[in-house]
């Protein structure tokens, strides 16, 4: 009897491991799964780019009207706005060749405004701009402004952007289907106490690409891994059937893929876990942004929490005893995933701190190990899924060397995201192609200023051209007059 008990005791951890493994198995995806995802993504991207198919496509592949990357000659003072998460930033940026200096201030967007009306949102934004300009003695100036608005927009010009649908927890009434530049200008006019003209609206992915392209000419792809996820890339005009503007040089345009919506047509159902389904069901945009919900920071913590709760309920964690905090939706923050995975051989310092914050009283080192394992499975799947998207775009672009400009809190703060992506992209990439992942510094601010600067330069060039044409016309008509006067003589 004694012998049997002993054997059982030594088998127990393995047996427990197997039970844990059963619960987390759906997060392990095979190479074939990732290859299949790439094929499906390519199909989705092409559907979005097609004139006929775009209407029903879930991944919208919006042309951005950004057709020039900075060349380092951009100069001057610019205002930039950055709206895309819970914070709103106003920035003052000075560009002088490669030198960029900036002042910025963060303003909170309260939950009631995120879920209120469009008028409230844009009045709030205008008020923040006013406060910022006042503090920085800018009210007398007439500064060009670039707006990083990180939501899916159908653009009809560089400063004409119609919101197609809210994402990431925003739902302000009366904005979808409307031009956000118009809404911003109207709010500024309602106040009547400042001169600001928005020259360009960009997505944060475009900002990441622009800010990296400023120093690396190979940068042709922008990626965000933060509250949400999305990518943009340089596409050749003949592939963009939706493009109905002139086909003049340059023959490319940046495409904002809005890849977060990949899977909204069921394409990802074959890898969806019960945890993903639960997160989707309890979100404010059920059925939408399926790929984003498997990857980005707004959802990752919650996926981990659901798995931990299931393990606990099965008595495989914390001896079955959790806490009110652990049972509360949204209470396991994504930053915990990064913190827990940052513990290396130091007695699970961060993990224990997280358990303390969640008011979990009794835990063992084994609990710490399991929690760390769950975090790593969920974040690895996210990193590999994002890698499949990047590899798909790199293969599609087929350029020998591409730098990917990356920004976002998940990529920035997670200890292994970069390395996981490097490894997986390499594995999925067509032979002979090379790539780099470059951290973008303050893309949303700098990128918006750079695009506004380019727009400003192009506007000035246009004005000059028009003036020249007028003087040429005048000169011609004078010559004409003289010629006809002479012929009359
Ligand atoms: C969401 C938005 C997208 C943005 C991304 C990252 O997916 O729809 O526009 O780029 O989040 O912030």
Walk me through this protein's architecture.
- This protein is α/β, with parallel strands linked by helices and 489 residues long.
- The chain folds into two domains: 3-60 and 262-439, Hexokinase, domain 1 (3-Layer(aba) Sandwich); 67-215 and 442-454, ATPase, nucleotide binding domain (Nucleotidyltransferase, domain 5, 2-Layer Sandwich), CATH 3.30.420.40.
- The protein is built from 15 helices and 13 strands.
- The longest helix has 46 residues, at 443-488.
- The model is unreliable at 483-489 (pLDDT under 50).
- Alpha-D-glucopyranose (GLC) is lined by residues 84, 150-152, 167-168, 203-205, 224, 226-230, 258, 260, 292.
Q: Given the structure, what is the number of helices?
A: 15
* Assembly context of the chains: single chain
Poorly predicted residue ranges: 483-489
CATH architecture of the largest domain: 3-Layer(aba) Sandwich
Distance between the termini: 131 Å
Radius of gyration computed on alpha carbons: 26 Å
Arrangement of strands in the largest sheet: 1-11-10-9-12-13
Assign a percent range to the helix content. Answer: 40-55%
* Derived structural class: alpha/beta
Q: What is the succession of H and E elements?
A: HHEEEEHHEEEHEHEEEHHHHHHEHHEH
């Amino acid at each position: 009897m004694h012998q049997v008990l002993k054997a059982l005791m030594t088998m127990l951890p393995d047996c427990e491991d197997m039970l844990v493994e059963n619960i987390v198995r759906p997060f392990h995806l095979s190479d074939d799964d990732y290859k299949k995802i790439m094929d499906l993504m390519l199909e989705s991207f092409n559907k979005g780019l097609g004139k006929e198919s775009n209407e029903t496509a879930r991944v919208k592949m919006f042309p951005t009207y950004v057709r020039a990357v900075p060349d380092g000659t951009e100069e001057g003072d610019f205002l930039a706005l950055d709206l895309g998460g819970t914070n709103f930033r106003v920035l003052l940026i000075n560009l002088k060749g490669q030198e960029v200096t900036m002042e910025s201030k963060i303003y909170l967007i309260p939950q009631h405004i995120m879920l209120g009306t469009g008028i409230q949102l844009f009045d709030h934004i205008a008020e923040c701009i006013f406060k910022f300009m006042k503090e920085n003695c800018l009210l007398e100036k007439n500064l060009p402004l670039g707006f990083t608005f990180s939501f899916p927009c159908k653009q009809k010009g560089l400063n004409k952007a119609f919101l197609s649908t809210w994402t990431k927890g925003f739902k302000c009434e009366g904005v979808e289907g409307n031009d956000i530049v118009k809404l911003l200008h109207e709010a500024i006019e309602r106040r009547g106490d400042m001169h600001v003209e928005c020259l360009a609206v960009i997505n944060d992915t475009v900002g990441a690409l622009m800010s990296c392209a400023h120093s690396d000419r190979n940068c042709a792809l922008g990626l965000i891994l933060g509250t949400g996820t999305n990518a943009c890339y340089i596409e050749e005009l003949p592939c963009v059937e939706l493009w109905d503007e002139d086909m003049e040089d340059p023959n490319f345009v940046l495409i904002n893929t809005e890849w977060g919506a990949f899977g909204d047509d069921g394409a990802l159902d074959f890898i969806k876990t019960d945890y993903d389904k639960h997160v989707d069901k309890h979100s404010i945009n059920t059925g939408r942004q399926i790929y984003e919900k498997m990857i980005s920071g707004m959802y990752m913590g919650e996926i981990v929490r659901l798995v931990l709760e299931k393990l606990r309920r099965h008595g495989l964690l914390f001896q079955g005893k959790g806490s009110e905090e652990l049972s509360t939706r949204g209470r396991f923050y994504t930053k915990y995933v990064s913190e827990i995975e940052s513990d290396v051989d130091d007695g699970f310092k961060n993990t224990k701190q997280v358990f303390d914050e969640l008011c979990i009283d009794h835990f063992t080192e084994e609990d710490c190990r399991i929690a760390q394992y769950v975090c790593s499975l969920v974040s690895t799947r996210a990193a590999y899924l994002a890698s499949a998207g990047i590899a798909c775009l790199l293969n599609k672009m087929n350029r020998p060397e591409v730098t990917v400009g990356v920004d976002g809190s998940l990529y920035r703060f997670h200890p292994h995201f970069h390395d996981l992506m490097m490894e997986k992209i390499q594995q999925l990439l067509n032979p002979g192609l090379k790539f780099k992942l470059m951290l973008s510094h303050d893309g949303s601010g700098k990128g918006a200023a750079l695009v506004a600067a380019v727009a400003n330069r192009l506007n000035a060039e246009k004005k000059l051209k028009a003036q020249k044409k007028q003087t040429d016309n005048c000169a011609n008509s004078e010559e004409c007059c003289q010629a006809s006067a002479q012929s009359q003589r």
